[in-house]
Automatic annotation (TrEMBL):
PROSITE patterns: HTH_ARAC_FAMILY_2 (PS01124)
GO molecular function, one term: transcription cis-regulatory region binding
Alphabetic keyword roster: DNA-binding, Transcription, Transcription regulation
Gene behind this protein: nphR_2
SMART domains given in the database record: HTH_ARAC (SM00342)
Region (Disordered): 332-377
Protein name: Transcriptional activator NphR
Organismal lineage: Bacteria, Pseudomonadati, Pseudomonadota, Alphaproteobacteria, Hyphomicrobiales
Biased composition (Basic and acidic residues): 363-377
PANTHER family with a match to the protein in the record: HTH-TYPE TRANSCRIPTIONAL REGULATOR GADX, HTH-TYPE TRANSCRIPTIONAL REGULATOR VQSM
InterPro entries according to UniProt: AraC-type_N, Homeodomain-like_sf, HTH_AraC, Tscrpt_reg_AraC-type_HTH
Domain HTH araC/xylS-type: 236-334
Any single Gene Ontology cellular-component annotation: cytosol
Pfam families listed in its UniProt record: Arabinose_bd (PF12625), HTH_18 (PF12833)
Length: 377
């Protein structure tokens, strides 16, 4: 089947559907609502638009009345639900090899983003980029976190491996078993979606490793990569580059073009072909980021302004009012009231603070450096 635009594999919907089979969820209606072919759920090679991939998770969590359920559901799925990608981790020689395989073969799961794995003196981070402008991704990220953590648990034969998890969103109102299990190792309201793995674990041989079997798995993964592994679309590359540079105050056409290795005119022509412009794209991404920070974090307004590329709080406030028809403070207050109203008698889960994150960056230092860069630009 032709793969157009930004897509992700549809097999995750099968997990959602089977889990909620005893509920009143109307999947034909969901497919129509989020614009995907219902038959793709049964197709081993089925794909859905990335906006549907995000939106359906939010829809199902809301219908189930449990905004923490995705952690538990995907922390307990059977290995093999998600094609050969599952076995890349469990059969790898070491945890480092497993992480590297994830990075290499993520294109068989989606063309909308790339995972990264960076290793330092104390360990390595597996990180998912924050996708601005593709709809609310919170529940989808809870699911990815539950699944990825399960892979680590099984590979290491540890019920609770000594990892640290950071999520760039608020804690769910319903406290999941997963949150209780990783209490003290799970931080919400962070600036990244990532998992830290201590260096001592990365070189550890995995007990289920099988050299011959792993060669077979890698061969099968390469075949899937040939089928699905299209490069990110140019528009996706531009959008992701803009989003990642907002916080550095360097979201300008010359800077983004240079980062992409393209001329400014080439970027402009590509965007024109897609019916947009650099100004419109950056504005939409900045608007999406502002909404996420205001709805999902308790960060000060001044810091949010810097994070999305505004050097002055007054400019940020005017932009928010033009986007949402109200001041940043009123927008945040309205979002909080809606969240509390939707939660009934459930109490909002408190944010878990990690007191011993490796090499924690000073937020004030980051802001100072960011402000200096923006002034220099």
């Amino acid at each position: 089947m032709p793969l157009e635009g930004e897509w992700a594999r549809a097999d995750v919907f099968r997990v959602l559907r089977d889990f909620s089979s005893n509920t009143d969820l109307n999947w034909p209606h969901i497919a129509e609502l989020y614009n995907f072919d219902l038959a793709c759920i049964e197709d081993p090679q089925g794909t859905v638009p990335i906006t549907a991939w995000h939106g359906v998770f939010e829809h199902v969590a809301k219908a189930l009345g449990d905004d923490g359920v995705m952690f538990d559901l995907f922390n307990n799925v059977e290995i093999g639900c998600f094609s050969i990608f599952d076995y890349l981790f469990s059969c790898a020689p070491t945890l480092r090899d497993a992480c590297v395989a994830w990075i290499k073969f993520i294109p068989i799961r989606t063309n909308a983003y790339r995972l990264t794995f960076e290793e330092g003196e104390t360990g390595g981070y597996v990180e998912w980029p924050i996708l601005e402008g593709r709809g609310e991704w919170r529940q989808n990220m809870f699911a990815r976190t539950g699944w990825a953590t399960q892979q680590l648990e099984r590979a290491l034969d540890m019920q609770v491996p000594p990892i640290l998890i950071e999520l760039a969103t608020t804690a769910p109102q319903n406290t999941s078993a997963f949150q209780k299990k990783y209490q003290g190792r799970l931080k919400f309201g962070a600036s990244h979606n990532r998992i830290f793995i201590p260096r001592s674990l990365l070189s550890r041989p995995l007990q289920r490793s099988d050299t011959h079997l792993y060669e077979i798995i890698l061969k099968a993964a390469m075949e899937e990569l040939d089928r699905f592994g299209q490069l990110e679309s140019p528009l996706t590359r531009i959008a992701n580059e803009v989003a990642s540079n907002l916080a550095h105050g360097a979201c300008t056409l010359p800077h983004i073009s240079a980062k992409l290795g393209m001329s400014q005119r080439a970027v402009q022509r590509l965007l024109e072909k897609e019916g947009t412009s650099f100004r419109k794209l950056s504005e939409e991404i900045r608007r999406s980021a502002a909404e996420r920070y205001l709805r999902g974090t308790d960060l000060p307004m001044k810091e949010i302004a810097y994070l999305i590329g505004f050097s002055e709080l007054s400019t940020f406030s005017r932009a928010v009012k033009s986007w949402f028809g109200m001041s940043p403070r009123k927008f945040r207050e309205g979002s909080a009231k809606n969240a509390e109203g939707g939660g009934g008698q459930r109490k909002r889960a408190s944010l878990v603070r990690l007191s011993k994150m490796p090499h924690p960056a000073s937020r004030s230092k980051e802001l100072t450096e960011r402000k200096t860069r923006m002034r220099a630009d």
